[in-house]
Design a protein that fits this description.
Structural class of chain A: alpha/beta
Order of helices and strands of chain B: HHEHEHEHEHEHHHHHHHH
CATH topology of the largest domain in chain A: Rossmann fold
Shape of chain A: globular
Radius of gyration of chain B: 27 Å
Strand content of chain A: 25-35%
Largest interface: A-B, 30 and 26 residues
Structural class of chain B: alpha/beta
Strand order of the largest sheet of chain A: 6-7-8-3-9-10
Radius of gyration of chain A: 22 Å
Oligomer: heterodimer
Number of strands of chain A: 14
CATH architecture of the largest domain in chain A: 3-Layer(aba) Sandwich
Largest sheet of chain A: 6 strands, mixed
Distance between the termini of chain A: 32 Å
Mean pLDDT of chain A: 87
Number of domains of chain A: 2
Strand order of the largest sheet of chain B: 2-1-3-4-5
């Protein structure tokens, strides 16, 4: 059994009448790459801020590396690297100045931990004299990641690091995270993109302040307990309306060119019959293996 | 300490990279002092005066000749009665009336003492004060001449009366006033903006989640502005001296020390503002309305406190610039030492401590 890096017990936080997170409990192992997946407003940022000692929980407790997030906040601030959801570096400072500033305030130097960030930094090094505000979105995130880990943190907390970043940079970014994980850093990351879930060791699906499920991506997919169909006809929009009206439909949502559909009936012939009765042409129905997104959609609709 | 140094260096980067603000910061003292300096007419030529000579003797005639030949004054009317004074002012042509008492020369001979009354239209206070001081100077010169020739102590008393604005302020008011306004503006506004900027950009979130102590963040923010504000104070003093001949009668060292104290007070006020505001906009608005207006209007810079309604007079006591203006006016114009201004100094010191204590208490170690 590996060591526990983060442990959260019955954590709740309200803003006025709105419950941001509701009675959360989970544990994250040392060296794990743990993802929180959920839509905007699910409570991810609130949770991360509590873990980073930036907010006080209403009830419950959280600890990082066995330091309490409320009492030992000073110690925690020494061992975490935090990258907020909003780009939070000094726009009027150059890439290099930003890095060395964050190195200094954490009591280290760029040279000392250069090895740790080399792989990432090498990509932005050609622009090291450029002001951070003038970098592209992907570059900004890479720089922010460098700044967050310049002091060799034990826990890296990344709040939506890939939001607003192009697809290629997103992929690169996740590759970097996988590499970082190998050096033994515990990484928790939040994202609204479900497809990124499969890149984590374990994921927690979070919605409306509650954790719906915590497991490895594979297990979450294997929890998918019914047949999933991809359906296509000549008129996708009309089909969407028709399927939503159908009393046999469990979930139906657009996914690329197809609609992904689960039904209460075990027999898939009823789908074709129903669509024909609604005078759809070019009907195409096939059973498919669910991916992580299908699994989440099903969990969320429960 | 190394962390703190790194933080201060970062602050200087912010300041020096922001060219526009830099230009404003250092351009403002120049522009303001020039505006205040030149908008207030310091030269007087051919100002219209009227004379009410109740005595009409050789001495009063001589004094009148001296006044009119100086080039500063032009005789618009010879009055014969006190009742004519008010209407002649109302016509607007004359700025000053000079009144000699009855039997002026005789009194001067026998009692060694005679009175001249100078009545000035102080609806334009600066001109009025210049005119009266010119007039009294000329009369004093004449008096000196008399004393030389006669070897006898004689005294002509020019009694100055300001109409319409009795509490007239000195023209030198603008240098102490400008220093006060600018130091207040730069110190309080710039620190409050620079702290709220970190909040707005989200960098405060990272700073808070770092091992930096709140006190390091706050002091680190303040240090660069102490330098800049101090430089600006020096610029104003040098300009005041070179361009307008504004003297520093008292100790320069003491003056600088008091400036530094006032800067610290304004800075701590700025920090306090930033602890209660979330955006640069609100910080700026608060600095503008809560600080600038009282500084200009209630400190005695432009409007004399003595002329204000009682509630405002009482309120002016909690306006820090009021005390600072008293201090620097005393040092610069009267040349007094700390012994005379320790009370005001102590008040500002007390305010500084109060603001710092309050902002440290209010500074949040967390978000929200």
């Amino acid at each position: 059994m590996s060591e526990i890096a983060i442990s959260v017990n019955n954590l709740s936080k309200k803003y006025g009448d709105i419950t941001a997170i509701n009675n959360l409990s989970f544990e994250i192992n040392k060296g794990e790459l743990f993802g929180f997946i959920g839509p905007d407003g699910a409570g991810k940022t609130t949770l991360f801020r509590i873990l980073c000692t930036l907010l006080l929980p209403d009830t419950g407790s959280a600890s990082l590396c066995s330091f309490d997030a409320v009492k030992d906040y000073k110690k925690i601030r020494n061992i975490i690297g935090y990258m907020p959801g909003k780009f939070s570096l000094y726009q009027d400072l150059s890439v290099e100045e930003n890095l060395s500033f964050f190195a200094t305030i954490f009591g280290t130097t760029l040279e000392e931990n250069y090895d740790l960030i080399r792989d990432i930094y090498i990509q932005i090094e050609p622009f090291k004299t450029r002001q951070a505000g003038k970098l592209s979105g992907g570059m900004k995130q890479k720089l922010a990641l460098c700044c967050a880990m310049i002091h060799k943190p034990e826990v890296l907390v990344l709040d939506e690091p890939t939001t607003g970043v192009d697809a290629v940079s997103r992929k690169e970014f996740w590759e970097m995270l996988r590499k970082l994980k190998e050096s033994g850093i515990t990484i928790i990351v939040s994202t609204p993109y479900m497809d990124e879930a499969s890149l984590c060791d374990r994921v927690a699906l979070i919605q409306g302040g509650n954790i719906m499920s915590t497991d490895t991506p594979e297990n979450i997919i294997s929890q998918f307990d019914t047949a999933l169909y991809a359906v296509k006809t000549h008129s996708m929009y009309q089909m969407m309306l028709d399927l939503k009206d159908w009393n046999q439909t469990e979930t139906a949502y657009l996914f690329g060119q197809y609609m992904h559909l689960t039904i209460k009936d075990k027999d898939n012939n009823t789908i074709e019959a129903y669509l024909k009765s609604k005078s759809h042409k070019d009907i195409e129905i096939k059973q498919i293996t669910p991916n992580i997104e299908d699994a989440f959609m099903r969990l969320m609709s429960k | 300490m190394k962390r703190f140094k790194g933080f201060v260096i970062k602050e200087f980067y912010h300041i020096f990279r922001d060219y526009r603000t830099m230009v404003i910061l250092f351009g403002m003292p120049l522009v303001q002092i020039m505006l205040f300096g030149f908008a207030i007419t310091t030269e007087i030529n051919n100002a219209g005066i009227a004379i009410l000579d109740n005595s009409k003797d050789a001495t009063t005639q001589k004094i009148c000749n001296k006044l009119l030949s100086s080039g500063y004054f032009k005789l618009e009317a010879n009055l014969t009665d006190y009742k004519e004074i008010e209407p002649s002012f109302r016509k607007g042509k004359i700025k000053e009336v000079i009144i000699f008492e009855n039997n002026f020369a005789q009194k001067l001979e026998t009692e060694k003492k005679a009175d001249i009354q100078i009545v000035a239209d102080a609806s334009d206070p600066n001109t009025a004060s210049l005119l009266t001081s010119y007039t009294t100077n000329i009369i004093n010169n004449y008096q000196l001449e008399l004393m030389k020739t006669r070897q006898l102590p004689m005294q002509i008393n020019p009694e100055v009366k300001m109409l319409y604005n009795e509490e007239l302020k000195s023209v030198f008011m603008f240098v102490p006033g400008t220093i006060t306004v600018l130091l207040m503006l730069i110190s309080a506004m710039m620190t409050s903006i620079s702290i709220t900027r970190e909040k707005e950009l989200g960098t405060m979130e990272i700073l808070l989640a770092s091992p930096l102590k709140p006190i390091q963040i706050v002091v680190g923010k303040v240090v660069p502005y102490v330098f800049i504000s101090f430089m600006i104070a020096v610029i104003i003093l040098v300009l005041g001296f070179t361009v307008f001949g504004m003297p520093v009668q008292g100790s320069l060292f003491l003056l600088m020390g008091e400036c530094l104290l006032f800067i610290l007070m304004a800075l701590s006020l700025g920090i306090l503002i930033s602890t209660v505001t979330q955006t640069q906009q609100t910080a700026m608005m608060i600095s503008m309305f809560a600080l600038m207006l009282p500084t200009i209007l209630l400190s005695g810079f432009i409007f004399p406190i003595e002329n204000m309604p009682l509630p405002l007079q009482i309120f002016s006591n909690i306006v820090p610039p009021k005390w600072f203006i008293i201090i620097i006016k005393n040092i610069m114009l009267k040349g007094v030492g700390l012994a005379y201004i320790w009370k005001e100094t102590l008040i500002i010191l007390g305010m500084t401590v109060f603001f710092i204590a309050l902002s440290v208490k209010k500074f949040k170690i967390r978000l929200g």
